[in-house]
Amino acid sequence: MECINRITKIKGCITVPGDKSISHRAVMLAGISKGKSVITGFLRGEDCLSTIACCRKLGVDIWEDQGSVIVQGRGLYGLTEPEDVLNAGNSGSTMRMMSGILAGQDFVSVVSGDASLRSRPMARIVKPLREMGAAIDGRKNAGLAPLVIRGGSLKGISYSMPVSSAQVKSAVLLAGLYAQGETSVIEDTVSRDHTERMLAYFGANVDVRGTKATVKPSELYGVEVEVPGDISSAAFFLAAAAVIPGSELTIKNVGINPTRTGIIDILLNMGADLTLDHIRTAGGEAVADISVRGRKLHGTEISGEMIPRLIDEIPVIAAIAAAAEGKTTITGAAELKVKESNRIAAMVAELKKLGVAIAELEDGMEIIGPNRIAGGVVESYDDHRIAMAMAVCGLMAEGTVEINRTECVAISFPGFFELLAGVSV
Ligand code: S3P
């Protein structure tokens, strides 16, 4: 439980923990590479630790040295049959992307996770992986984990994705490393492309043209990966500083991959005073320092192709939209219902408890601002991003916001509350 009180402003210069998506991919690709990889800036959040634990159970040696994570890769065909269930914990990325690798292995693996993960849809990866030749079983015809995967002897496919999902795209591309012929994934709306970038960085034969990514069976080689700060973690601080007048905040070394920067575009649309400096590239990914100065914001509309570019930031956008002037409408975001919690229902219910004018839509929400945000007791739904979004509400509220079950923030952002206290004035 955490209690958050109103602050006058946010002030400071900080860094945030490493990018969750990139950290998962770095360990997985390093594990199936030839030679050693050195990963700096790795996120030591529970989700990425689940990925490390799964890779270790598959025979990969992983250790720490002077703050870096070192992975001794076993090559594409060097993984060994796990003796026990692979536990992905709360992490959809671990379960879905790992399943792509497991589909290529000539052995049996069982993948499971916590109650939230066991309720999340898996048919979306099972369908294409079965088409490629993997034998997969599980509850509800493998619609739900635990999944039992007997892999090997895959053939390449061309797969048009019905929903925009980087996890599904990644699972298919990773399986494609093991498939005969080439494997393509075609998306309607482009989702985050870290896997494509990182495959190329590890030396794989990968080709991206518009909304189509193609991979051919290829050996990967160990590399040094520098993981930038996670823009999805930075988002809580950027959003709070943008909406609280008088704030001045710089976050150094944040990943600004264009498939992830919807939050920057939306803050600017809402009238935020935000700048990017020192733009550079690290490990095939764009990185920058982001500065924001707080002022009054106004409502906005978010829909369509923008959604995948800020899908994880919608809870915090809803939080600051409560304080912004006018209407904010978010549509086309039905995927939020199958995240770590139903994030539409969760944000609507909890913001209502604080007196915010918010309505649930079938595929999003509508918020009318500005609201006087009241204090109150709210729930996290054991969802890290709901807990942190509610903390941002607390910074603006007239009374104390008491958030129950906040341990979940360690999934993606260990040290979140301490960092927040450190920049709160
Ligand atoms: C992720 C992709 C997104 C995102 C998740 C991480 C990834 O999910 O919500 O937090 O690392 O590929 P989908 O791919 O299901 O949209």
Explained architecture:
The protein is an alpha/beta fold and 425 residues long. The protein folds into two domains: 2-17 and 229-423, Enolpyruvate transferase domain (UDP-n-acetylglucosamine1-carboxyvinyl-transferase, Chain), CATH 3.65.10.10; 20-226, UDP-n-acetylglucosamine1-carboxyvinyl-transferase, Chain (Alpha-beta prism). It is built from 14 helices and 26 strands. It has helices spanning 20-31, 46-57, 92-102, 123-132, 139-142, 166-176, 194-201, 231-243, 262-269, 307-310, 314-321, 343-353, 384-396, 416-423; strands at 2-4, 11-14, 33-40, 61-65, 68-74, 86-87, 108-112, 135-138, 144-150, 154-155, 158-160, 179-180, 183-186, 205-209, 212-216, 220-221, 224-226, 248-255, 273-282, 285-293, 301-302, 326-330, 357-361, 364-369, 376-378, 401-403. Strands 3, 4, 5, 16 and 17 form a five-stranded mixed β-sheet that branches. It has a four-stranded mixed β-sheet with strand order 2-18-20-19. Helix 3 links the parallel strand 6 and strand 7. Helix 8 (231-243) runs parallel beside helix 13 and helix 11 packs parallel to helix 13 (384-396). The chain starts with a strand and ends with a helix. It binds shikimate-3-phosphate. Shikimate-3-phosphate (S3P) binds at residues 21, 93, 165-167, 170, 191-192, 311-312, 335.
